[in-house]
What we know:
The structure holds two protein chains of two kinds. Chain A is α/β, with parallel strands linked by helices. Chain A contains twelve helices and 22 strands.
Amino acid sequence: MADIRNNFIGIKSPNPFWLASAPPTDKAYNVIRAFRAGWGGVVWKTLGEEGPPVVNVNGPRYGAIWGADRRLLGLNNIELITDRDLQTNLREIKQVKKDWPDRAIVVSLMVPCVEESWKAILPVVEETEADGIELNFGCPHGMSERGMGAAVGQVPEYIEMVVRWCKANTRMPVITKLTPNITDIRKPARAAFAGGTDAVSLINTINSITGVNLDNFAPEPTIDGKGSHGGYCGPAVKPIAMNMVAEIARDQETRGLPISGIGGITTWRDAAEFMALGAGNVQVCTAAMTYGFKIVQEMIAGLENWMDEKGHASLDDIIGRAAPNVTDWQYLNLNYVAKAHIDQDACIKCGRCHIACEDTSHQAITSMVDGVRHFEVIEAECVGCNLCVNVCPVENCITMEPLAAGVVDQRTGKPVSPIYANWTTHPNNPMAKVAAE
Amino acid sequence: MPEGQFKEGIAGGRLSPQQYADNFSDLHPPLDHHEALVESDRCYFCYDAPCMNACPTSIDIPLFIRQISTGNPFGSAKTIFDQNILGGMCARVCPTETLCEEVCVREVAEGKPVQIGRLQRYATDVAMAENKQFYARAAPTGKTVAVVGAGPAGLAAAHRLARYGHDVTILEARPKAGGLNEYGIAAYKSIDNFAQAEVDYVTSIGGIDIQNGKALGRDYQLSDLTRNYDAVFLGMGLGGVNALRADGEETQGVANAVEFIAELRQAIDLASLPVGRRVVVIGGGMTAIDAAVQSKLLGAEEVTICYRRGQEHMNASEFEQDLAAANGVTIRHWLQPKRVVAEGGKVSAIELEYTAMKGEKLVGTGETLTLAADQVFKAIGQSFVPAALNGSGASITLEAGRIKVDAEGRTLLQNVWAGGDCIFGGDDLTVSAVAQGRDAAESIHRALTSNGRA
C-alpha cells in the first residue's frame, strides 16, 4: 500500500491534501468538519491585524461559469480576508491544533507592509502552536487597493522585504503565496527565495469578470449594479496554475524551493499532476466549496490506487517527476514526426475532425471517399498538429502515431531522422549555433 | 382493474375520468428549459450532419440545436420554420427513430441519439407560446392560388405562397383544417388542440383564406379551379380505406381505424367514445398501432394486432411497436383475416388464417385461428380516390393509383401541382408532405413570376 503521508518543509500531515486559505477554513466549525472528513491540513483563512474587523459586501461574493449541466467550471470571488475578530480566530486555531495534533494547520496572514505590523502579529500566531504561516501576497481584490495582498505580490522587492521580516521575527516555517496576476511567475518566486522563504504556494486567484448581465450591462457578480474584478479559481484555472508551478520547479535560480500547488485541483489526478510537476503537496478550495469536504475521500483513495498500480511507494517517488520534461520550445525535437490516425471502427462519423482541419488548419482529413462519408487522414498534408484529436468526441478514436526513423514523411518527402535536432541548430534559425564552433 | 373493462360488447365509460386524462396525456412530455440545455449540449454539431440529410425537410438540425444551447430559442425556431413551417407538429409526430435520430452519430456511438424531436418541440413551443412571427408577406402579386386540402402539404404550400405575396384559398372538405394532424394522429401525440393552434399560427401570416366543407368533386370541380385561379395545388390526401377482403366485413362492429382515430380526436368526452372489450386490429402500420394503443387506453381489456407478414415487415417503427407492447397490446404476425364471425348481427370473433412465404409469394397455410372480438378495426392501408378528379380529363395522370408528379410537384395538367399522400412516390409521412407542399409552392412561385422575379 502506497504511503501518502506528507512532510512539507517539516510540516507533517497524514496526506498531501490541504484546504487552501479561503472561506472553508474561516472557523473552527468548518475546519473540524474538514478534519473529520479526512483532510490532511488546512491553511486557516487569512488573518489581518488587530483592530476593527474587515467588512465584506452584503451582496453576492461569488460569480461562476458553468458547463451545460450547470457543472461549475470556474468560480470567482470578491470576499476579503477573515471578517472575524483576530482573538477569536487565534483562540480557535490554538484549540483545533490541540485537538488535531496530527493535522497540519498553517495560518495565512496579511497585514500592512510595515515591519511593525508583522512584528506584532507573528508572536501571537506562534502562540497558537500552528505549524507555520502563509503570507497572502495574492488576494487580487479589495485588500490590494489598501496596499496588501496582490499589491505586495506584484512587486518582487516588497515580497523579499516582507519575507525577510517574517523569517527574522518567527521560528515558524514561512510559505509565500504568490499571485498569478503578473507576467513572469519566476520573478516573485525568486524574490521570496532571496528573502529566505521556506516555500512558495501558488496560484492565488486570477483577476476576472465571470460574466456581464446583458439586461443591465453590469459585470457579475453584481452588487447594486456594479461589479469588481474578483479572483478566478476552479477547474478552469488548472492549466495556468500548473504551468506556473512548473516554471518555478525548473528555474535554476530557485532550484529545490518547495512548492505547495494550488489551482483548480478537484480530483486525485489533478493533485498527482501538480505533484509530478514539482508541488510537494496541494491545496484545494473550489472543489470543496462545490461538493463539500467528502471529496477528499476520493482524492486519498484515487492517489493511493494509482501509486499502488504504478509501484510508487511514497510521495517522494512522484514529486517533481515531470518537471525535467518541461522545457523551452527551442529544445523540442524537430525531427520527431507524428501523424494523426483515425480508427475507423471507433469513428462515429461526426466529421468534426474534417471541418476543423478543413476550415482552420491543413486540409488533411477527407470527408468523402468514393462517394461515401469517410474521414481519413491525408498523410501528405498532415502536420501532426493534434487539433483533430482534441475536437474528436470519441476517446482514442484519433491518435497521434509517431513515424519510425527511416520512414518517409509523405508531407516533406524526406525520411524521418533518428537524430535529435532542435531549433538552436536548425539551418533556418539565423541565430543557430554553428556546430563547428 | 376498473370494472368497466369487463363490460361486454362495444361500450363507453370503461374508465374513470382521471384514467382517461392520464391515459391521453402527452406521450413525450416537453423538455423544460434546463433539460433542453443539457440535451442540446449532447449535439456534436456534426459536419454535413447525417440528421439534417435524413430530414425530409432538410432542417439545419445542428444549427437549431446550437441556438437552443446558446439561449436563442427564437433563432432556433426560425431555423426550423425556415425549412418546415409545421415544425411544431413534426416535432410531435415524426418517427424520428427512423429519420434524424436513427442516423444521429450518438445513436451510432452509444445507442442514445440526441433527442432531436423533443428539442425541436422545445424551440417551436417557445416561439409559438409567444406567437413570435418570423415571416412577413411580400408585396401582393395579384396572383391567386387554390389549394385543395388543409393538411400538412396544403398548409405548407399555402404559407410559402402567402409569403411570396400570392393570395391563397384553401378548400377543405372537413369542418376543420389540419388534415391528418387534426383527424389522423393519436391523441397523446397532439394534446391541447395543438393542430388548430398550429393552423392559426401558420395562417396568421395573412393572405390565406381557408374555406371548410368544400370537397373536390362534390362542391366544385378541378376545372373550376383551373379556370378561376392562376395555379392549383392538390393536397387532398387519401380518401379511401383498403378492404379486408374477408367474409362478413360488413358486420356491425367492423370499422375503419382511421375513422375511429378521427372520432377519438374530435371527441369532447372520451368516456362517451365506445370501444370493444376485445378488439382486433388488422394491419401493420402506424394507423394499426394508433388504433390499437388508443383502444387499450380507452379501456379495452384485450387488444390484438394481427399482421399478415413478419415483425420485420411492419411499417410501424420499432418504437411504435414497443409503445404498443408497453401499453399491453399483443402483436401477432403471419395471420390474415379470413372471416368475421357474427352473433346476433354483431361481431363475436374473427377467424384468421396463418400465412407463410412460398418463394416470393405470401400464401395462406390453411390452418386457422379464431380470436374472440367484439370490435374489429381495419388498418390495412388507405388509397387515393381518383373519382374526385372526374372531369379533369386524362391530363391528371395516375401512377400506381396516385397522382403522378415530377420532381417539382407538377402534375401533367398545366398549372396544377400536387403533394402529400395523394401523390405517387411519397412515404406517407407528415414531414414529407410538408416538404412536397413547400417545394411545389416554390415551383408555383417560379411559374407565376418570371422565374422568381415579380
